[in-house]
């Protein structure tokens, strides 16, 4: 059976070194290091993907995916705009929307809040997040729903009253402060501390009576069938509406929460670079191992050169040996990483059951489970990066081997 000489000899060197215990130990350490580095990268990136998806779902659960609002001083016919939007995106849900700043006061305690209108779709989402109370008073226009952290800070419980101060514009140059007393109808918890501690919900007519439309804080909330369609829907609406209805402002959730997801992307990138250092350390072990093999095989190299092997063929021998070790480590790491990333939940449950180790304490964290979402592109990028690092690590030792002089190597043999 035909074997290219460099590959054949390189594989022989990779297999038949049981008597060189230290070199063999370094080889296994290198392979294990590459394997663990690749597996750690895949698992960490999958967990960060899971956290990103969890954050996106929680953010979108209580907010509009696409918003159509008007600039201050512009008061379009929202019924006409709503009909046109419904014609442009027939598969989406279109409802009235309002959002305005407010200051909640309860005795000596005050807290700035973002007061949002809870339309019918929003009320359905709120009902699933309530930890106390109900939405009866909210639907009747007399109640307000607070996040539990905000209620705790103000010392409020379901049934208590809270005074809200809301700035509104009577005329362009004469703002005033409106106040209204609400009954706490319920407490919700979405699992996002910033959101739960700073957002409150009231009915759409209540915000309209407080001057949301005059202050430029009212509009339409559009919910496409899929969150990923929101940017395309927003662009379609901009093209169709901005020329006919000057003063309309159209935005989607990717713009509103851009800072959250930008931070996740930066953190994911930095984590990948840091963990790639594990593979780099393993690659240094490959370099050290190949240098020792080159030193040990100087006589073999001289004999190969004497029989006519070119320097390139000698370099190929040690490239083959290093690449076999590196690629085996990458392959094992990919398999191990995929296995762990797809079974993070059961693995953590076993650790909690048998070792008493809990990653997220339910008394401290909103999330008690570690989400994991494996992306094929992440696996591919990790594997290619690791292969490149390990491949680069073999180049210099292979070049050193190709420069061994046969006469020098055989002089004292």
How many domains? 2
| Range of helix content | 55-70%
Low-confidence stretches: none
Strand order of the largest sheet: 2-3-8-5-7-6
Number of strands: 10
Radius of gyration: 32 Å
Series of H and E elements: HHEHEEHEHEHEEHEHEHEHHHHHHH
Count of helical stretches: 16
Quick synopsis:
The protein has helices at 5-15, 21-61, 78-88, 120-129, 136-139, 148-154, 193-196, 204-209, 230-241, 253-256, 258-296, 298-306, 311-341, 344-355, 376-402, 406-410, and strands spanning 66-70, 93-106, 109-117, 130-133, 143-147, 161-171, 174-188, 199-202, 218-223, 248-252. It has 413 residues and is of the alpha+beta class. Strands 2-3-8-5-7-6 form a six-stranded mixed barrel.
């Amino acid at each position: 059976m035909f074997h290219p000489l460099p590959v054949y000899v390189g594989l022989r060197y990779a297999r038949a070194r049981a008597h060189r215990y230290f070199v063999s130990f370094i080889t296994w350490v290198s392979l294990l290091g590459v394997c663990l580095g690749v597996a750690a990268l895949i698992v960490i990136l999958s967990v960060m993907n899971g956290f990103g998806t969890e954050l996106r779902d929680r953010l979108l659960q209580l907010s509009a995916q696409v918003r159509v609002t008007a600039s201050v001083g512009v008061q379009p016919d929202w019924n006409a705009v709503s009909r046109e939007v419904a014609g442009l995106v027939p598969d989406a849900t279109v409802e009235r929307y309002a959002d305005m700043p407010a200051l909640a006061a309860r005795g000596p305690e005050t807290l700035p809040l973002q007061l949002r209108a809870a339309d019918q779709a929003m009320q359905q989402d709120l009902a699933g997040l309530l930890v106390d109370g109900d939405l009866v008073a909210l639907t009747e226009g007399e109640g307000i729903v607070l996040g539990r952290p905000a209620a705790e800070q103000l010392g409020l419980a379901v049934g208590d009253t809270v005074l809200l101060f809301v700035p509104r514009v009577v005329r362009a140059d004469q703002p005033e402060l409106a106040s209204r007393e609400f009954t706490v109808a319920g407490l919700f918890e979405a699992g996002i501390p910033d959101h739960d501690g700073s957002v409150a919900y009231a009915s759409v007519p209540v915000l309209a009576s407080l001057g949301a439309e005059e202050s430029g804080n009212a509009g339409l909330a559009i919910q496409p069938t899929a969150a990923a369609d929101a940017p395309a829907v927003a662009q379609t609406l901009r093209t169709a509406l901005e020329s006919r209805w000057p003063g309309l402002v159209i935005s989607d959730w990717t713009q509103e929460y851009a800072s959250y997801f930008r931070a996740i992307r930066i953190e994911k990138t930095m984590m990948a670079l840091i963990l790639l250092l594990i593979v780099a350390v393993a690659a240094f072990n490959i370099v050290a191992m190949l240098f020792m093999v080159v030193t040990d095989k100087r006589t073999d190299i001289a004999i190969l050169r004497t029989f006519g092997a070119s320097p390139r063929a000698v370099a190929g021998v040690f490239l083959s040996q290093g690449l076999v070790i590196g690629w085996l480590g990458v392959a094992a790491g990919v398999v191990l990483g995929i296995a762990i990333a797809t079974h993070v939940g059961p693995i953590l449950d076993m650790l909690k059951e048998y070792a008493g180790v809990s990653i997220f304490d339910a008394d401290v964290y909103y999330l008690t489970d570690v989400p994991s979402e494996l992306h094929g592109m992440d696996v591919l990028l990790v594997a290619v990066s690791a292969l490149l690092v390990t491949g680069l690590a073999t180049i210099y030792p292979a070049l050193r081997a190709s420069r061994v002089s046969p006469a020098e190597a055989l002089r004292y043999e």
